[in-house]
Amino acid sequence: MSMDGIILINKPLHITSYQVIRQLKLILGPHKYGHTGTLDPLASGMLPICVNRATKVASLFTQGCKVYTAEMQLGATTHTGDSESALQHISFVTEEHLGRLASAMRAFQGVIWQTPPMYSAIKIKGQKLYQLARRNQYVAVPARPIHIYALHLLALNRSSYTIRMRIHCSKGTYIRTLVEDIGKFLGCGAYLRSLHRHTVSNINDAHMITLAALEQLPPAERLLHIHPVSAFFTDIPQVFLEEHEAEALLRGSYLPKDPGLRKYYYQENFLGLLERQQQLITFKYLCLTRSP
């Protein structure tokens, strides 16, 4: 089993994405690892980790949509927009506020403008926003468009005034900010209590594994959870090459005929992902190192 591929970790709460990689190094060995976009310590769920040569495709995961289940607390706000900081403003939640929930679920679907939070890794003039926020330095952050493909109310607890909702969104969406904006729309304020990510780029979450479960497996069985790159990106067009074309690709001398990103095969063998932008050719990943 190849050590080049992608492992789908079901990240537990209260650890960072970098801590996941450190634990993987202890479990699988000192290979090259790369995560596909951070998942906050507050959040659990899918974290694709690319191993060895597959790290070249990590950026492709950040472009895809994501699906979350979020729990939001009505009637209060916090400094960071989640349960990681102290309560700021507390208000009574009324039936009038709750009566606006259906309208809120409709209002925040489609293309909307969102202002990223100060506690984020976005850079302004070379500095990350959360670093500025920790120094009590606040700057104007420009709003940007995001796409909420679907927003569903799953449950409303009228005794605790908590809401669970399922969110299908584009890249760059901050769920903390979405929750805060919904709280403003309702008129009672809200913050994010918990977050679970189900999918990244439409990947089936049935193949996720926890770090604890992975560690319990025999070493040979651990490798079964490193999935080949060819199993992902099913929406990318496929191109099947002749033998001489495949040999040229592996030598680095093949010129793709079609612009854009393509998955290249020789017979049943996955060769790699290539992207052609005008005259520039990017080899995203090569699976084989020998002639077909």
Q: Main attributes?
A:
alpha+beta, Pseudouridine synthase, 3 domains, eight-stranded mixed β-sheet, 9 helices, disordered C terminus
What does this structure look like?
By secondary structure, the protein is an alpha+beta fold. The protein has 3 domains: 5-64 and 202-231, Pseudouridine synthase (2-Layer Sandwich); 66-200, Pseudouridine synthase (2-Layer Sandwich), CATH 3.30.2350.10; 238-286, no CATH class. It has 9 helices and 16 strands. The strands form 4 sheets. Strands 1, 2, 3, 4, 7, 10, 11 and 12 form an 8-stranded mixed beta sheet that branches. The longest helix is centred in the first third of the chain and has 12 residues, at 17-28. The chain is elongated and about 70 Å long. Mean pLDDT is 87; it is low at 288-292.
